[in-house]
Design brief:
Strand order of the largest sheet: 2-3-4-10-5-6-7
Largest sheet: 7 strands, mixed
Order of helices and strands: EHHHEEHEHEEEHEEHEHHEH
Protein name: Ureidoglycolate dehydrogenase
Strand content: 15-25%
CATH topology: Ribosomal Protein S8, Chain: A, domain 1
EC number: 1.1.1.154
Pfam families: Ldh_2
CATH class: Alpha Beta
Number of domains: 1
Structural class: alpha+beta
Shape: globular
Bound molecules: 1,4-dihydronicotinamide adenine dinucleotide
CATH architecture: 2-Layer Sandwich
GO molecular function, one term: ureidoglycolate dehydrogenase activity
Family: Belongs to the LDH2/MDH2 oxidoreductase family.
Length: about 350
């Protein structure tokens, strides 16, 4: 039985500074390191620790080993009024995907709708980050991204698709937007990493071991399970097609692995499908409707064992407020690493998709 690791509380500013410094130590230019630190701090503030500081050692190793283009030659190609690609030249994913938002906003403002493929990028992190930014501009959007083949298709004993997440965001009249953001697996791979880093076990419904049996040991995971059996399996296929295959990027089991070939770009696909709601009704009416929906959801009688009904994204917003006030709880070994002179631990690269 693994012992739970000690945690420490850090302020968001301190965490941001530590992440940015470590990524720059690994060789990432300041602008990309700043934006990646913004993103990872947002994830830890939201209590989505699977996509926060826990990832820095991996990113640092890939950056240091040449698997991220440090000065990417980004190529934006608008192929129609509402269609474009934003080729990231395998630059740091969070940075490239964030840069593309500017083009998405511009196209939606001009034409009412945009589908922009962010192509040839590395890992783009927590998708709520992007759809929330679009919603702050009054835009309703979906974002999806490809991830490495680590999920057994329904009825299969070998992995094919990735944890392929889908996020949706919409503006509110007041306060932060609503955003729904999920992996199409029962849990994101990062949640298993988070369990490993904390020494926790996992429920037996999340993943299977190398023999296809359900496992509670995060270190024994060899394949993840799709949400709701064939339905989650279908959703992850849709993500793979819309975020990757449609741009002629590798798909399914051909998608690159996070922990292999750390000296090569990952060539992942990430997509924004965004629309201006004021092309259908006024923004004021749309956001009034959202407020009505939120109020009606909040007024629903909670079921036994629940204190209230939350709208999607609300828990992350509450976590952010609390963590900003009280500090973010992070495993101590992660902070020790971030504060140390060690750039990375040379621990990825030869271990397959389910690396320690
Ligand atoms: P999750 O299970 O923590 O949350 C899924 C959704 O359910 C969220 O929108 C959350 O607000 C909502 N939710 C959770 N509890 C709720 C409640 N009690 N009431 C109402 N709504 C509730 O998310 P998951 O699936 O673990 O994904 C975590 C993150 O991993 C996401 O940000 C996703 O984008 C990211 N991810 C990124 C990948 C990549 O390759 N870039 C791959 C897979 C996931």
């Amino acid at each position: 039985m693994t012992q739970k690791n000690e945690t420490v509380k850090v302020t968001a500013n301190r965490l941001h500074e530590l992440i940015k410094n470590k990524l720059m130590q690994a060789g990432l230019p300041e602008e990309a390191a700043e934006e990646t630190a913004n993103h990872l701090t947002y994830a830890d503030l939201s209590d989505i620790h699977s996509h926060g500081a826990v990832r820095v050692a991996y990113y640092a190793e890939r950056i240091a080993k040449g698997g991220v283009t440090l000065e990417p030659n980004i190529n934006f190609t608008q192929t129609g009024p509402g269609t474009a690609t934003f080729d990231g030249d395998n630059g740091q994913g969070h940075y490239v995907a964030n840069l593309a938002l500017e083009k998405v906003i511009q196209m939606v403002k001009e034409n009412g709708i945009a589908m922009v493929g962010v192509t040839h990028v590395s890992h783009t992190g927590m998708l709520a980050y992007y759809v929330e930014k679009l919603a702050e501009e009054g835009i309703v959007s979906l974002s999806m991204t490809q991830s490495d083949p680590m999920v057994v298709p329904f009825g299969g004993a070998e992995n094919y698709f990735g944890t392929n997440p889908i996020a949706f965001g919409a503006p509110r009249k007041k306060g932060r937007p609503i955003f729904f953001d999920m992996a199409t697996t029962v849990q994101a791979w990062g949640k298993i990493l988070d369990a490993r880093s904390k020494g926790d076990s996992i429920p037996d419904t999340w993943a299977v071991d190398s023999e296809g049996n359900p496992t509670t040991d995060p270190h024994q995971v060899a394949g993840l399970l799709p949400i709701a059996g064939p339905k989650g399996y279908g959703l992850m296929m849709i993500v793979d097609i819309l975020a990757g295959m449609i741009f002629d990027l590798p798909f399914g089991k051909h998608v690159s692995s996070m922990y292999k070939d750390l000296d090569k770009g990952r060539d992942l696909g990430h997509v924004y499908i965004a629309v201006d709601p004021s092309r259908f009704t006024s923004l004021d009416q749309f956001t009034s409707n959202i407020e009505q929906m939120v109020d009606e959801l909040h007024a629903i009688q909670p079921a036994k064992g629940f204190d209230q009904v939350y709208y999607p994204g609300e828990l992350a917003i509450e976590s952010t407020e609390r963590n900003l006030a009280e500090g973010i709880e992070i495993p101590k070994h992660i902070i020790d690493y971030l504060e140390s002179d060690t750039v990375h631990f040379d621990q990825y690269g030869n271990k397959g998709a389910f690396a320690e």
